[in-house]
């Protein structure tokens, strides 16, 4: 159960957080949220898929780590086996908080019940004088990027919807041992529709800064083959 609190040096002077990857530290997940302003980094390692909320119809993007719930093929023996760690994972247990006024000043919040909080083994958040440590400064920068990405996502997904650029995606994988794994409930970008956009549409997407994340998401799909190879290797050593 979460227990969010505004981070401040008086209350949290001695707070420590474990930074290393770990299955028991919240990293044993099939996917995590990715925002368009990090697609360039995400696509270097992970497939970028899109998930639709069936109640609201809203979309979000995810970096895919595995083929089933609780599977992360990039987490091996306590090591993160990829060049990039998506923002939504790397900022845990911190988050951005605001007042009821969405345009209010952003604050750094922390989930005091998160498993990464460990006063014995963790890295300090504040130094002895109550100043932010380099670790906290790095987290704050990442929180800012993630918050900016969330805010920009609404326009990005509205553009994808306007030009009907998303399509349902189902994948069935046959592993080397004959076992089958299915990936359902996701969407991907329709490359043919993107190719068919006229100059006006492409110009609008470019002016809004959306063409780059679109191309990055398309390029990321080549990593599905890599993910299958990781799955086969994992099963072979199971």
Properties at a glance:
SapC; three-stranded antiparallel sheet; alpha+beta; 238 residues; globular; Peptidase
Question: What can you tell me about this protein's structure?
Answer:
The protein is 32% helix and 23% strand. The protein has one domain. Strand 6 and strand 7 (79-80) form a beta hairpin. It has 238 residues and is an alpha+beta fold. The mean pLDDT is 93. The radius of gyration is 20 Å and the shape is globular. The strands form four sheets. The protein has a five-stranded antiparallel beta sheet with strand order 3-5-4-12-11.
Strand order of the largest sheet: 3-5-4-12-11
Query: Helical amount among residues, as a percent range?
Result: 25-40%
Count of domains: 1
**How are helices and strands ordered from N to C?**
EEEHEEEEHEEEHEEHHHH
Largest sheet: 5 strands, antiparallel
pLDDT averaged over residues: 93
Low-pLDDT residue intervals, each spanning 5 or more residues: none
Cα-atom radius of gyration: 20 Å
What fraction of residues sit in β-strands? 15-25%
Extended strand count = 12
Number of separate helices = 7
Q: Calculate the terminal CA-CA distance, rounded to whole Å.
A: 32 Å
Based on secondary structure, the structural category is alpha+beta
Protein name: Peptidase
InterPro entries: SapC (IPR010836)
Organism: Croceicoccus pelagius
